[in-house]
Amino acid sequence: MALSATLPPLREVIARHGLDARRKLGQHFLLDANLVARIVRQPGELTGRHVVEVGPGPGGLTRALLDTDAASIAAVEVDPRAIEAIGELSALDARLGVVAGDALALDLTTLVPAPRQIVANLPYNIASPLLVGWLRQAAQWERFTLMFQEEVGDRICAAPDTEAYGRLGVLAQWICTAEFRMRIPPAAFVPPPKVWSAVVVLTPRPEQPDPGLFKTMERLTAAAFGQRRKMLRGSLKPLGGEALLERAGIAPERRAETLSVAEFDRLARLLHGG
Question: What is the pLDDT of residues 117-161, one digit of tens each?
């Protein structure tokens, strides 16, 4: 029998630990067992994988992960109430370790050995900076299966020349293949957020840029999309402007949202090479 089938209802866990969701922590708890089981299927086979979960809350997704054949699970949590609740699960399954700390301040690659993945319902208020930090070290990860606000999921997977396309999408798609897998309604959460949510699966590409080139791409995309209605000759003026664009074979009258990820890659490599 799966471990989750033997456990008390999550609402009981929330009540026992006084685990009311707190806005300042970006908490929205997912309690539907069928839904979290679907999310855990999105990354594919987890047998032998070492998984990091960020922001487990009362443990709904954690329970579903423990029902897989993952080799180990490290749950990173900053809320003392949730740490206590997740501690009850770790006492029942030695594969689960609880890490008390802020995921933004931790190098998650130090928590589990390879092959490693992240599967998480991310706290909404820090989801984008978390993702950018993980993209910087994507070569160390096999896959990211992450829940965001739907708007953020749209931005990560957006195509050029669409309203959602921007810096986050360029960075994510440069480093990974990005797949929009699930839409989840507000009613699935406690408390329900004001927006729909999305599960996105990001798989790092075989070839990864060195840290210096990644920093250059961050500078480039920040400049290009910082004034996205400007022509590139203006927005990229501090980085070389028309001369850089001419070397890349890109018309200076174009705007950032019209460039493909491959064109941003070309610009970044030219800028990085000097």
Answer: 999 999 888 999 999 999 999 999 999 999 999 999 999 999 999
Contact 39, 63 (CB under 8 A): no
Element containing residue 248 per DSSP (H, E): helix 241-248
CA 140 from centre of chain: 15
Q: Which helix (H) or strand (E) holds 218?
A: helix 211-226
pTM summary value = 0.94
How far is the CA of 17 from the CAs of 11, 83, 86, 188, 226, in angstroms? 10, 10, 10, 21, 44
Q: In degrees rounded to 5, what are phi and psi of residue 128?
A: -65, -50
Q: How does pLDDT run across 163-180, given as a tens digit for each residue?
A: 999 999 999 999 999 999
Q: 254 vs 214, 224, 225, 265, CA distance in Å?
A: 23, 11, 12, 16
Structural domains present in the chain: 3-204 (3.40.50.150), 211-273 (1.10.8.100)
**What distance in Å separates the CA atoms of residue 205 and residue 73, rounded to the nearest whole number?**
24
Closest to 73 measured CA to CA, from 105, 35, 106, 40: 40
**CA–CA gap between residue 144 and residue 30 (Å, rounded):** 18
